[in-house]
Amino acid sequence: MSENKTVKLTIVRQDNTNSKPYEETFEIPYRPNLNVISCLMEIRRNPVNAKGEETTPVTWDMNCLEEVCGACSMVINGKPMQSCTALVDKLSQPIKLEPMKTFPVIRDLQIDRSRMFDSLKKVKAWIPIDGTYDLGPGPRMPEKKRQWAYELSKCMTCGVCLEACPNVNSKSNFIGPAPLSQVRLFNAHPTGEMNKSERLETIMDEGGLANCGNSQNCVQSCPKGIPLTTSIAALNRDTSIQSFKNFFGSDKSI
Q: CA separation (Å) from 38 to 41, 100, 124, 137?
């Protein structure tokens, strides 16, 4: 019976950015349809470990709880994923929770994703507008183009693809798959296209496309199924064209 069952979780904890990580095990009562977030909330409600010792509540990030915001990313049983959609019934126990190692740890499972956000700023991953007033409807996109652009727009900056990529680490300044895919998305937008050459030249620089090792871990791990490797392949073509344009000093589209 469910009232006699428990869920065992081993959590890799860290008191602050500079302290050493350690493991702590918890057991909570089982109930149907539990996800990892529900387990963490139960531990926060009653922060007592499996030894019966009182401890500090576990820290982690969360927001939407429906796999939209990307805030609750962590490594669950060795795989980076969203903890809000990680169901206990589909996980082997003890469930091991770890922070994503690509990013600095703030505390416990809470990480600093500034590296990814700084990369998005670097590639100007937005649509520039002139002023804050109502500009009216913008230029229309062909339906076929809009459909694949929508797939790229599903990115929730969760950081899972950066965690899965072997080329994104503390010894590399590779911006990673998500920012690269956003370059393709905003370059395809009728208004965003005005900064296309600037974005392409940015990813042609250090830390850009050349650092991709084509392991394809990113597309396999993306919780939204975004065709990241397709975007990277398309950007390789676009940067080659941009190189020719730079060499010949042409401002015309090819």
A: 5, 19, 36, 42
Q: For the stretch 92-126, what's the b/e string if a residue is b when 16 or more beta carbons lie within 10 angstroms of its beta carbon?
A: eebbbbbbbebbebebbbbbebebbeebbebbbbe
For residues 250 and 252, give the distance between their C-alpha atoms in angstroms, rounded to a whole number.
Answer: 5
Alpha-carbon gap, residue 69 to 114, rounded angstroms: 15
Give pLDDT tens digits for 177-204: 999 999 999 999 988 999 999 999 999 9
Q: Residues 158, 73: contact at Cβ < 8 Å?
A: yes
Q: Which of 17, 97, 102, 5 is nearest to 58 (CA)?
A: 97
Closest CA to 201 of 170, 245, 171: 245
Distances (CA, A) of 235 to 31, 75, 208, 227: 47, 29, 11, 13
pLDDT digits (tens, 9 = 90+) for 15-49: 999 999 999 999 999 999 999 999 999 999 999 99
Q: Residue 25 forms beta bridges with which residues?
A: 10
The per-residue pLDDT for range 216-238, each reduced to its tens digit, is 999 999 999 999 999 999 999 99
Structural domains of the chain, with CATH? 2-111 (3.10.20.30), 114-248 (1.10.1060.10)
